[in-house]
Each structure stands twice: as C-alpha cells, then as structure tokens.
Recover the amino acids of this structure.
C-alpha cells in the first residue's frame, strides 16, 4: 500500500494521520504552526516519512500555542497540553502500539515552541523533542490579536511562562534538537534557549547558523531522529 494521509478524530478533536504501507515502528507526533499548516503541506516531509517508513500523527489545536492553559481557539475547558497527554498519547499507545521511546515530538513555528515546552515540562513522556523555527519568545507575539492576548495580561507575563522558563535543573528530554535560520523573526529566542541549555549542561543539538526555510532543516532532523530511535530501541532489548 502506498503512503496515505487520512483525517480522523481523537477525543472529539480533529487530527491527520499518515502511514506507509509497512511501517517500522517510530512515529512523528507533529505540532502545527500558528496557521495550522498540516504535515502534508510541509515540503519534503511526506517523502522523508516514506523513506524512513515512519508514521505521523498531527493533532489540530488552532492558534492555541499548545499551552497548558485552556484557549477559546481550541477548547474553553480542555487545554491543548492536556489533550495531548490524556487523549493523543493513549491513542498512539492503543492504535499504533508505540511507547514514548518510539515517538518524537516535532513542531514548526508555534508548534516548535509547543514541542520544546512540552518536552521540558514532561521529559519522560517526550524523551525525543525537536523544533524548527520555534516561536519560543511568547512575548514577541503578544499584542498581535492572537489568543495570547487573553491568556496573558502583559508581555512580561507571557515571557515568564515561555518555554525557556520551564527548564528543570536536573530533568530534561534525552534527545533535544532545535533549528532556526538567523534571518527568522524567532532567532533570538532559539539562540537564547541554546545558551541556557549550554549553561545548564543539557545535551542537545542546535542548528542556528544556516539560512534555510523550515523544510530545509528536515533532512538533518530525520538523521538525528533516526539515531535517537536506534539508541532508545536498543535499551528495550
């Protein structure tokens, strides 16, 4: 069977799933950007998934910033984070029979911020985390008419809850990868996270010196994820 993308619902919320004819196990849990760009619209992603024979699940959350706070753009009571933890991950375990060592949380833009944030807040649920062009400095988006304006009363309140502020001094994802082009609006936040991770001795890979569009970072990302999956799978033997 050739590659197939299909729409589905998880816990009453929309998602997109992609599967090759004969998957080998690993899953990319894809968090979309503020525009809600689906995974099949990201140039080169489907081809790489086919090459590696990995599956992909992409829940939709609107312009919610993948926060631990309820957001009207997603749900007035259920936060995007709780949806992922209590509904999406159990779906992966039940329907695709994978565990945390077999999925990687990958996001672009707003979703890159969400991936880093979730990984730092729940490193044992998300041991492999990757961000491309992550919108890490929430305060830079405050005041532009997004749900951030109602979630946080001031830009400073948004900054104090940014992904960078959720780094635990002794506990973090085993595999952490981030990439951002120097000409990106979000570059300084990525560079700042890189500096803080270095200062705390957190192992990670940062690709911050290449002027590439988001899709240009996909080949090195998949090579990194392939190594991470291999290392974690050996521990199961």
């Amino acid at each position: 069977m050739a590659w197939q993308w299909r729409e589905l619902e998880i816990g009453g919320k929309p998602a997109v799933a992609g599967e090759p004819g004969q998957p080998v196990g690993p899953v990319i849990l894809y968090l979309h950007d503020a525009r809600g760009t689906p995974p099949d619209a990201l140039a080169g992603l489907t081809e790489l998934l086919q090459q590696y024979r990995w599956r992909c699940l992409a829940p939709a959350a609107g312009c919610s910033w993948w926060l631990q706070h309820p957001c009207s753009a997603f749900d007035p009571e259920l936060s995007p984070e709780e949806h992922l933890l209590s509904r999406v991950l159990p779906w992966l375990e039940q329907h695709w029979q994978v565990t945390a060592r077999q999925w990687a949380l990958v996001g672009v833009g707003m979703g890159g911020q969400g991936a880093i944030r979730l990984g730092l807040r729940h490193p044992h649920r998300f041991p492999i985390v990757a961000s491309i062009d992550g919108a890490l400095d929430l305060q830079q988006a405050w005041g532009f008419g997004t749900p951030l304006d109602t979630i946080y009363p001031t830009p400073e309140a948004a900054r104090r809850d940014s992904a960078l502020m959720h780094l635990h001094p002794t506990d973090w994802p085993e595999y952490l990868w981030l990439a951002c082009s120097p000409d990106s609006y979000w570059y300084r936040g990525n560079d700042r996270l890189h500096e803080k991770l270095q200062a705390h001795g957190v192992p990670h890979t940062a690709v911050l010196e290449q002027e590439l569009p988001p899709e240009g970072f996909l080949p090195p990302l998949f090579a990194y994820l392939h190594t991470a999956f291999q290392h974690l799978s050996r521990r199961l033997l």
Residues 112 and 213 are 14 Å apart (CA to CA). The radius of gyration is 17 Å. The chain has one domain: 4-234. The domain at 4-234 is CATH 3.40.50.1820 (Rossmann fold).
